[in-house]
Write a structure and sequence with these properties.
5-stranded mixed beta barrel, alpha+beta
């Protein structure tokens, strides 16, 4: 597995959502992307979560916009009048940023609309697959208030996984926490429709082979593995991510039991 690398060439407009201030930018392949800044908020950890969770979702057959690595130059700040955004661009560029200007971006879906749970109802299989995925990666940010789902060309697309894998903000006892049931799944926007969680569990888990998860973890750039003193090397840091995911995948999976229990309370 490899991610494409692109160079940001034009800052188009900020997306003033959340604390990370993502932006729409144009790249040297003439494509438009939603750029997530390495210098924002929770820094590289949010980008690692976006990358790892997003590629796990893709491996499970879910629709996730293409993820690319984007190089950012400080000159892009010149066309932005907002000083806060100027500082963010510079902090995420190869001039000042400790990550060498390497950021993450997702393919922009022009004309997409936010999923409205009051107007649309996904089928039980798709809803169950998405809930299973979010419970596995501990994604707490897919609620009725903030669905992080887009409808594009009649298909449901998953976006914004920077809040997933939140265990990596504190690595103490992370293996023990890999078996956590993830009680916050009760707030998932699709949980009321996820009636096939138990039936799909074995198939979903079997899809995520150790080799596939290892390939995904290997995609994490070295530049994003620089601020964690718990590990003596970047290889050990990467190995810890893989170990967590493999442990979380072991049966019996408490996160599936918890999600099914929470679904039953909605019925």
């Amino acid at each position: 597995m490899k991610l494409r690398h692109v160079q940001a060439t034009r800052y188009v407009t900020p997306l003033r959502e959340g604390g990370s201030l993502p932006a729409i930018v144009e790249a040297d392949d003439d494509g438009l992307y939603v750029l997530k800044f390495v210098g924002a908020g929770q820094g590289p950890r949010a980008l690692i979560a976006e990358l790892v969770a997003g590629e796990i979702g893709r491996a499970l057959g879910l629709a996730v916009p293409e993820i690319v690595l984007m190089q950012l130059e400080p000159e892009l700040a010149r066309t932005e009048p907002d000083p806060e955004i100027q500082d963010l661009i510079r902090a995420s560029s190869d001039l000042l940023g400790s990550s060498g200007g390497l950021n993450l971006a997702l393919d922009y879906l022009p004309g997409s609309v936010t999923f409205d749970p009051l107007a649309e109802q996904p089928d039980a299989t798709l809803a169950s697959r998405i809930v299973w995925f979010d419970a596995f990666v501990t994604n707490l940010d897919r609620t009725p208030r903030n669905t992080n789902l887009l409808v594009w060309h009649g298909k449901l697309w998953l976006i914004d996984h920077g809040a997933a894998l939140y265990f990596h903000h504190d690595w103490r006892g992370y293996i023990d926490r890999a078996a956590s049931p993830f009680a916050l799944i009760k707030d998932h926007v699709l949980l009321p429709y996820a009636s096939e969680l138990v039936r799909l569990d074995a198939v979903m888990a079997a899809t995520l082979t150790p080799e596939k998860l290892a390939d995904i973890v290997e995609l994490i750039p070295d530049a994003w593995l620089t601020d964690e003193p718990s590990f003596a090397s970047k290889a050990l840091h990467r190995a810890a991510y893989l170990n967590y995911l493999l442990q979380r995948l072991k049966a019996p999976r408490a996160f599936v039991t918890e999600a099914a229990r929470a679904h039953a309370q909605h019925v």
